[in-house]
Structure formats: structure tokens, C-alpha cells
TrEMBL record:
SUPFAM superfamilies named among the record's database cross-references: S-adenosyl-L-methionine-dependent methyltransferases
Species of the source: Boudabousia marimammalium
Highest taxon listed in the record's lineage: Bacteria
GO aspect biological process, one term: methylation
Protein name, per record: SAM-dependent methyltransferase
Lineage, top ranks: Bacteria, Bacillati, Actinomycetota, Actinomycetes, Actinomycetales
Amino acid sequence: MSEPRRDLRPGPEEHRLQGHWLLAKMGKRVLRPGGIEMTQRLLSAAAPSTTDRIVEFGPGVGRTAEHLLAVNPVSYTAVDPNPEGAPALAEVMAPYPQAQKVTADAAETGLEDGCADLVVGEAMLTMQSPAGKAAIVAEAARILAPGGRYLVHELGFHPDNLPAEVVKEVQKGLSRSIKVGARPLTEQEWRKLLESAGLEVEFVWTNAMALLEPKRMIQDEGLGGFLKFVKNMVTNPAGRKRVLGMRKVFRANREYLNAIGLVARKL
Ligand SMILES: C[S@@+](CC[C@H](N)C(=O)[O-])C[C@H]1O[C@@H](n2cnc3c(N)ncnc32)[C@H](O)[C@@H]1O
């Protein structure tokens, strides 16, 4: 007998949602491992400006779009194939006539060669297969104009020489808990991925993977946002169970995981 389709399985959707959409449903807006602190460090290095044409891969609910649009760039294009974050993103983009959304896979954006000065992608490469990662990075390199920057913020494995069995076990535990394939890379591997597409890494920064730790959540969501999340945890038992399960897996693997950000330039 064939397995029932995931999206048709009975029970509340909290049992099925991918981890990031579950967290968004519970009120979280920052859906990346290194938090706002890391995003800000990376944005300082990439220095978005009014003269930039910006493309963001996988914007989620538009929290980084807020920072990018506040700069008042020449243009901002969000590329995401999924509908879940679209309403919140549309609200963020609404005041900015230069903002548009393209519903497409970042591996095949349909955008012109050299049409961007800055490409931003956070927490969207880790979930791709090795071939998927390479295709997205190649697409970023293709749409960047010479001298353009690519900002990446993802999940890292450390140290660089982790035994293959540990890597496999951690990937398995993470993927099961967040219900999406999670394939973090070591710093060396992230660098190599970008360099293989002809990009030169100019800046690397790491942070603790503390996505669901209270201190980081207050930093990321503000006290009001954190309290809203806590209220949703109290009133939504199915959501609470999943979130606590995810946090347990993150904590159990914290010695092997970090958040890593890189800014690379197209020569
Ligand atoms: C974990 S969320 C991160 C959202 C946001 N970047 C953040 O850091 O808060 C992953 C995002 O990547 C998007 N995504 C997943 N696969 C993608 C792909 N192949 N191309 C473009 N976006 C993708 C998802 O729809 C979602 O918006």
C-alpha cells in the first residue's frame, strides 16, 4: 500500500509544517540560524546602498527585506517559489514601488545576466541537495554584475574534520525534526561552493546556532514579539510540542553546529 501524501495526513497542520513555516505560524519572523545580529554583521560587510539592484533568494516573511528596502535601493526583487511567506512579504514591500516578487526557484530565476549588484540568501541553501546548492550559487553568480556581492547566511558544521558518521547522524536528526532536508556544510565547504562558481570570499563570520534560545529570540523578535511567541506556545499545544522537539535536537547537536555567514564578490 502506498504512503498517504504528507499534506493529506490527518491531524493539525503543526504536525506536518516545515520547521520555518511552523515558527512563522507561531509568530517568529527571523527564520535563520545566526539571528539578526549575524544579518547585521553581514549587511555591514556587503554595504547595500541606494545605487544597488538587490535580489533576495528565499525571503521568508520579509524580515531582511525590511533592512534592504530601508536603504531605498534602485530595485529589490524577491525570488521564492513557495506561497507561505508571500502575504507578509507583500506587506513589507507595499510602500516601495521598486520592490517586486518573482515566483521561481532560485536555481532558475528567469532574471537577466548581470542584473544585480547584491544577492542575499539566508537559510535557504542548507535545505538543498549538493546539486541544488551548486545550481543556486551558479545562478547567483550569473545574475550578479562584475564587482557584485553575494551574501550567504546558513547553518554550519564545525570543526572542519567531523567524522562522516557524526555528520550523517546530525543531518538525519535535524531533517526529521524540521521536516525538511538539512545539509549544513563546514566553513571550508561553504567557501569552496562559492569559489567553484567564480566568486571570491571576502568576509566570513560565525555565530552560535541559538535560533530557539530565549536570549536570541528576544534579540531577534524584540520583547513584544517574544511574548507573542510564548503566548502562542501556551495556546497551541501541537505547535508547542513541535517547537520544543526542534529545540531539543538543536541543543543535543550544538557542539557540532553553528551559523555561518559569508560575503563573496564576483570578479
Ligand atoms: C528557513 S526560510 C528562511 C527565510 C528568510 N530568509 C529568513 O532567513 O528569515 C527558507 C526560505 O527559502 C525559501 N526557499 C526554499 N527553497 C527555495 C528555492 N529553491 N529557491 C528560492 N527560495 C527557496 C522558502 O520558501 C523560505 O522563504
